[in-house]
Amino acid sequence: MQYLVFDNNVTQRWKHVKDFVESCNDVNFWVDIKRHTRLLLKETMEFCMDYEITNHINATRHQRTELRLDYRNGYYYRNLDTELGPIDDLKIPRRRLGLFKTKVFELYQRRQKAVNEAICNVFLSGVSTRDVSAAIKPLLETTFSASCVSRITKNLNSKVKEFHKRKLLDEYQFLFLDGITLSVKSSLKAVKKLVLVAYGITIFGKKDLISFRIASSESQSSWEAFLNDLYTRGLKGDNLKLIITDGCKGLHAALDIVYAYTKRQHCWVHKLRNVAKTLRKSDEKQVLSEAKKIYKAKTKREAVRLFRLWKNHWYKLYPKAVNCIEKDLDELLSFLEIPIPEKYKALIRKRIRTTNVIERSFREVRRRIRPMSCFTNQDSVNRIIYAIFTRLNNKWEDKPLVEFTQFI
Asked: Bridge-partner residues for 121, per DSSP?
């Protein structure tokens, strides 16, 4: 690298700059800058450690004094990954009476905290542990194995605990509850685990993946424990207008205990899937098309009228399909009873009549875990889900749903 020597003559300084820029292209310029900056950093760190050991033994090199507390014992060398890239063969002083502990970096440290944070941030942004190294190499000029990245991301365990224990504001007006099934290794084989998830929309229109917990099934006890946790952390439900679910019996039994006085909405997508199972393929399209007219009605009275017409048309052929909707009709039409300004009625009703909003988050989870055949343990599940949910929540932070703030 060519060093620029400046004097007091401004014209001469500018000439030096132009000559230097013309002598190298953009790539070489920044490569040289980073390399020499690392060299300067290395020299500065070594100087600081020499200064520290001088103060520690209370004597300079070769100084004879009764105040000396210890003696130098040469150096040892180590590598350190920094924000500026890798520093090789960093010279660290030793002393005779014990291990010298410098304040420049922590004992046994191989990477700056900023490097670990950068790796965790890339992981949180949705990059798999195998791809983190490739994503971060152009900046840090070093590589990390998937196992190394995995060890670093274990630092997220403490953040996962904080996420599970954080206090919740009782500001949610719509609460969506659902679960996603994942494979997790056990002692003998891979087993299916369910991740219970709560997604909310606040009175300020903010979307929020509120919490998640790993459970063995969608039983009443599992959902009740999950809902009680939300309640004790602050989600009392005073502002809740509607709880949207997929119709799981265990979930509704738990809701009868924790949020017994909040209206519930059955997901129309899940319900129509169940209806489709009772239909012949030849009639499926027509039956479902007519059934969809029910939830597109402008009022509950009109929806009930359309259901009766649909029932009269199809009951003889498909009594099971009709009964499937009829037994839950009131909870399927709960969203039509929520007072909404006419301007936003169609848009809001479309969002709150199904659990699609939470299913979109599940699609992101499935996309993220597609390269993984199975999770190693439950801690790895917690880290991945936390990473995805944190990224989504950060993405939504400054993008409120304006229409949901119009009927606080």
From this structure: none
Token readout for 349 is 């009703």
What's the pLDDT tens digit per position in 91-133?
Answer: 888 877 777 777 777 766 777 777 777 777 777 666 777 777 7
Structure tokens at 66: 């009764």
Which among 39, 379, 382 has a CA at the least distance from the CA of 196?
382
Rounded Cα distance, 264 and 273, in Å: 19
The C-alpha atoms of residue 352 and residue 335 are separated, in whole angstroms, by 7
**Is residue 34 scored above 50 in pLDDT?**
yes
Whether residue 387 is predicted with pLDDT greater than 80 in this model: the reply is yes
AA letter at 205: G
Phi, psi (5° rounding) for residue 79? -105, 150
| First-residue to last-residue Cα distance in the chain | 64
Range with top average pLDDT, 24-28, 56-60, 265-269, 342-346: 265-269
Total-model pTM = 0.75
pLDDT tens per residue across span 150-188:
777 777 888 899 999 999 999 999 999 999 998 888 877
pLDDT value at residue 84: 75
Whether residue 3 has pLDDT greater than 60: no
Backbone angles phi, psi at 156, to 5 degrees: -75, -15
- Residue appearing with tokens 């033994």: 57
